Amino acid sequence: MQNLVIDAERLWGELMETATIGGTPKGGICRLTLTDLDRQVRDWFRARAEALGCTVTVDDMGAMFARRPGQRNDIAPIAMGSHLDTQPTGGKFDGVLGVLGALEALRTLVQAGYETFAPIEVVNWTNEEGSRFAPAMVASGVFAGAFTRDWAVSREDRSGVTFGAALEAIGYRGAEPCGQHPLSAFFELHIEQGPILEAEKKDIGIVTGVQGMRWYEVTVTGESAHTGATPMRLRKNALLGAARLVERVNAIAEAHAPAALGAVGLMEVRPNSRNVVPGEVFFCVDLRHPDAAVLDRLEAAYTASLREICDPLALSVSSSRIWDQPPVRFDAACVASVRRAAALSGLSAQEIISGAGHDAAYVSRVAPTAMIFVPCRDGVSHNEAEFTSREQCAAGAQVLLQAVLDYDRTLAERHARK
Ligand SMILES: [Zn+2]
């Protein structure tokens, strides 16, 4: 299997080719989930997979599975993949590398005529990013039973379009019920989205788990009033309360440094007019930590701060936890396959915990799962400047291919012993 080598140039070419679908002037991609641009990249992916002889099925959350048969087609496939949707000012590699790297790995098998024991699949999960429809990773979440499909398809974007309507509109509502698709294992290649591998000068991150995270939606309500005619002491300034809460979320995370993380990344001010005291502010809070017990403490401190900050300002406040992703530990056998794959490929590697959420975190609830990270320049991601080199992308795809083959061999051995 050492002679199976992915084609770095071909992978890079496809990364750059698909980057034009939603390409931004600053060199990034704006390809929000379930938009027409998403349809275009899905059509591209389907055509490429079918050209390799794969059968493509789509489930009723829009997740795509491109399957190449193995020797034993009664066995659930070993899958690899990630997502093709991006942030509004996303980079060229987040998610896309995991799908196109998987496609390149599969193409390498096809061209070598290498027959695996289990079928092999490349997966494109719908709405990983969560920027158009919250929460993130919603298709893999339904796949893993974390959400019901009915709830997921009723999520609305900020203009009131539901996930279900958007899915129908691009023609990617498939027949297969989401979650009725057993996998023998799942491997996800992804850029690190942080600075650790680059700082440690490592080619590959052997991802052993994902930190836990919780999202909250908050509305602070005061009273809109004229900024020129309303005395300060009579104001109910919702933005002032929101600003103090932003400070507090930051302070709560810093009090549990360095592992705790907290941020407000989205805020809407109403009526958002220069001469009106803001009457209502909507914002989202994101708290993260690798340990669920500490996450509970962060949440308790945050919850206590709501009334403490808003009461003295005569504001009312409501907060709801819209998402709870417990910390994840990946499957030991899958992680071992990644470790052997990196060694076999002659690449330097280290174990790492993922700071970001990934589809693999949900899939790990229903199938043995692991992830492979490659470095990204300066740790920059969710940004048009995101960059991973041709060689780094190729290294990741090569390890992905070898990890899948390693796992396939262990599956074959397990069945031979029966
Ligand atoms: Zn991603």
Please tally the helical runs, counting DSSP H or I stretches of 4 or more residues.
12
The top-level CATH class of the largest domain is: Alpha Beta
| Number of separate domains | 2
- Low-confidence stretches are none
**Helix/strand structural class:** alpha/beta
Give the overall silhouette: elongated
How much helix is in the residues? 25-40%
CATH level-four homologous superfamily name of the largest domain: Zn peptidases
List keywords for this structure.
418 residues, alpha/beta, Alpha-Beta Plaits, 15 strands
Would you write up a description of this structure?
By secondary structure, the protein is an alpha/beta fold. The protein folds into two domains: 8-211 and 327-417, Aminopeptidase (3-Layer(aba) Sandwich), CATH 3.40.630; 213-325, Alpha-Beta Plaits, CATH 3.30.70.360. Helices cover 36% and strands 22% of the residues. The chain contains twelve helices and 15 strands. It has helices at 8-18, 36-51, 96-112, 138-143, 149-153, 163-169, 196-200, 238-254, 292-310, 332-344, 359-363, 390-417, and strands at residues 55-58, 64-68, 78-82, 120-124, 185-191, 204-210, 212-221, 225-226, 261-270, 276-277, 280-289, 316-325, 328-329, 349-354, 369-374. The strands form three sheets. Strands 1, 2, 3, 4, 5, 6, 13, 14 and 15 form a nine-stranded mixed β-sheet that branches. Strands 9-11-7-12 form a four-stranded antiparallel β-sheet, with helices on one face. A hairpin with a 5-residue loop joins strand 1 (55-58) and strand 2 (64-68). Helix 1 (8-18) crosses helix 3 and helix 8 packs antiparallel against helix 9. The model has no long low-confidence stretch (mean pLDDT 97). Bound molecules: zinc ion. Zinc ion is lined by residues 83, 94-95, 128, 190.
